[in-house]
Amino acid sequence: MLTAIIISALAMTAIVAVRYLITSGAFAWATRRVRPGLYDTLDSQIRKEIGWSLLSAAIYGIPAGVVAWGWQNRGWTQIYTDFADYPLWYLPLSLLIYLFLHDTWFYWTHRWMHQPKLFKLAHAVHHASRPPTAWAAMSFHPLEAITGAVVIPALVLLIPIHVAMLGLVLAVMTIMGVTNHMGWEMFPRFLVHSKLGKGLITASHHQRHHEAYTCNYGLYFRFWDKLCGTDKGLSDAFVR
Question: What are the beta bridge partners of residue 200?
């Protein structure tokens, strides 16, 4: 059993690492095409971002691998594969529940990481990316990586979700994590400044966090930032 769990953890680590390399690599390539020169002086920083991110991939892979083994072999989780198990209207609802709860966890742990001692100990690794690049999405100190690695495995133990919706949650998490750190806004102005855009976090919003540090803590939505008075709007450098 232990061998099978270790193999599952190693497999999930490899999956997380490859997913990171492909996604960040694709958006880094796009950046060099769309914003030539933006990363030209950042080679040393990018190497550090990749190193920290691959370490984070191992930390993310361990609980994911354990839970994946438990799902397949012990029925530990609430993941289901038959669309008939729950009403079809629950599919999009489960997606929103997961994203909202993940966003809530991220907002409060992120604010916690900005406490002076914790920032110096751990979160400073992420903020060493000045400016952040497409490679910085998983550039975390191991302590911070642990806080991020446990949330989705915990949720699948508690809240039913179809495997397809879980895949969509992971896709949204990966893509938004990368695009919010690219150093430029990929979404058009009309969307960023629309009613929908004013509720979502994009690079324009997250860049402000990397500039000012004590604001804009959210991951997907601006709900908690607005409720708690930590939403300071969009980066001046990104306003178009």
Answer: 221
List CB contacts of 200: < 8 A, sequence separation 6 or more.
Answer: 220, 221, 222
Q: How far, in Å, CA of 116 to CA of 99, rounded?
A: 28
Burial of 175 (0-12, 13-18, 19+ CB in 10 A): middle
C-alpha–C-alpha distance, residues 216 and 234, integer Å: 9
**How confident is the model over 144-175, as pLDDT tens digits?**
999 999 999 999 999 999 999 999 999 999 99
87's CB contacts (< 8 A; 6+ apart) are none
Q: 3-state SS string over 212-228?
A: HCCCCCCCCECHHHHHC
Instruction: Provide the 10 A C-beta neighbour count for residue 224.
Output: 20
